[in-house]
C-alpha cells in the first residue's frame, strides 16, 4: 500500500485522539477514504491494520508507533498512539505542573503495587498529599478530579464503578517504565510474554492470562498452561 494522504490523515487522527477503539478507528478511516480515497469503494475493516502497519514503518524511527491492544477491563480492542521514549512522563512537562506530574507518577506507582492493579477512586484522590515538593503546594482534590477526568479521556486511566484502573494508553506507553521501576511486581502473560495487568486468573493456581490469549489457547487445549489442571474459569 503506497503511503498517501489517507495514511497522513489517519496518523493525525490517532495523534489527536491518543486512544481510539477499533470501531472508532474503522469509522475514522471510512471518513478519510471518502475524502482522500482514489475510489468510492468503502474499505473493509481489516484495511485499518494495513494502514496502521504502513504508518508504523514511517514513524517507528522517531520513537513513535500506533499499537493495537485488547483491553480486558472493558473487553474492547484499541489503537493507541504512543511514544517509545524511555521516560514518556518527561514529555508531558510542558503540559503539566511539577505537582501534577508528581501526582501522575504516584497514580502509576500505586496502581502497579495494588492488588489486581486497581484502586478505589477515593484512594486516588488521597494521593494528592504526595504531589507537593520543592516548595510547591499539593494539588487540591478538585484539581485531582479534573486531572483524572482529563487523563481518562486520553486513555491513561479508566474509572469504572468507583475503581480506577490503568487505561490502554498507560499499559502500552508505560510498559518499559513500569518494567524498569517495578520489575519485582510486574508479570507477563505466559502465552504471549507481554506485560499483563488485567486478565483471567486460573482457579487452581496464581497464573493470570490475557483474556484474548486464553480464548485462542482454549480452542486447542483445555488445561491451564501453567498448572495443567482443567481450566474451569469462564472467559
From TrEMBL:
Keywords: Chromosome, DNA damage, DNA recombination, DNA repair, Metal-binding, Nucleus, Transferase, Ubl conjugation, Ubl conjugation pathway, Zinc, Zinc-finger. One of its GO terms (biological process) is double-strand break repair via homologous recombination. It is found in: Chromosome; Nucleus. The keyword Transferase applies. It catalyses: S-ubiquitinyl-[E2 ubiquitin-conjugating enzyme]-L-cysteine + [acceptor protein]-L-lysine = [E2 ubiquitin-conjugating enzyme]-L-cysteine + N(6)-ubiquitinyl-[acceptor protein]-L-lysine. Residues 174-224 form the Phorbol-ester/DAG-type domain. GO terms for cellular component: nucleus; Smc5-Smc6 complex. It comes from the Eukaryota. GO terms for molecular function: ubiquitin protein ligase activity; zinc ion binding. InterPro entries: Nse1, Nse1_RING_C4HC3-type, PKC_DAG/PE, WH-like_DNA-bd_sf, Znf_RING, Znf_RING/FYVE/PHD. Residues 189-228 form the RING-type domain. The keyword Ubl conjugation applies. Its EC number is 2.3.2.27. Belongs to the NSE1 family. Component of the Smc5-Smc6 complex. This is Non-structural maintenance of chromosomes element 1 homolog. It comes from Anopheles sinensis.
Amino acid at each position: 500500500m503506497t503511503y498517501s494522504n489517507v495514511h497522513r490523515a489517519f496518523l493525525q487522527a490517532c495523534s489527536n485522539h491518543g486512544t481510539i477503539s477499533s470501531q472508532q478507528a474503522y469509522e475514522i478511516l471510512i471518513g478519510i477514504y471518502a475524502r482522500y480515497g482514489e475510489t468510492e469503494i468503502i474499505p473493509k475493516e481489516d484495511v485499518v491494520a494495513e494502514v496502521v502497519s504502513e504508518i508504523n514503518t514511517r514513524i517507528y524511527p522517531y520513537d513513535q508507533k500506533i499499537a493495537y491492544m485488547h483491553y480486558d477491563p472493558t473487553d474492547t480492542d484499541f489503537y493507541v498512539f504512543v511514544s517509545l521514549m524511555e521516560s514518556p512522563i518527561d514529555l508531558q512537562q510542558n503540559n503539566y505542573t511539577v505537582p501534577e506530574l508528581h501526582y501522575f507518577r504516584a497514580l502509576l506507582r500505586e496502581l502497579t503495587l495494588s492488588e489486581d492493579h486497581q484502586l478505589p477512586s477515593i484512594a486516588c484522590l488521597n494521593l494528592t498529599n504526595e504531589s507537593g515538593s520543592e516548595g510547591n503546594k499539593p494539588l487540591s482534590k478538585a484539581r485531582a478530579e479534573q486531572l483524572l477526568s482529563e487523563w481518562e479521556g486520553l486513555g491513561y486511566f479508566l474509572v469504572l464503578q468507583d475503581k480506577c484502573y490503568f487505561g490502554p494508553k498507560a499499559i502500552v506507553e508505560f510498559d518499559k517504565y513500569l518494567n524498569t521501576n517495578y520489575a519485582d511486581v510486574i508479570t507477563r502473560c505466559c502465552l504471549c510474554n507481554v506485560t499483563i495487568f488485567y486478565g483471567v486468573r486460573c482457579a487452581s493456581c496464581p497464573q493470570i492470562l490475557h483474556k484474548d490469549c486464553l480464548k485462542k489457547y482454549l480452542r486447542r487445549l483445555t488445561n491451564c498452561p501453567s498448572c495443567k489442571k482443567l481450566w474451569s474459569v469462564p472467559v
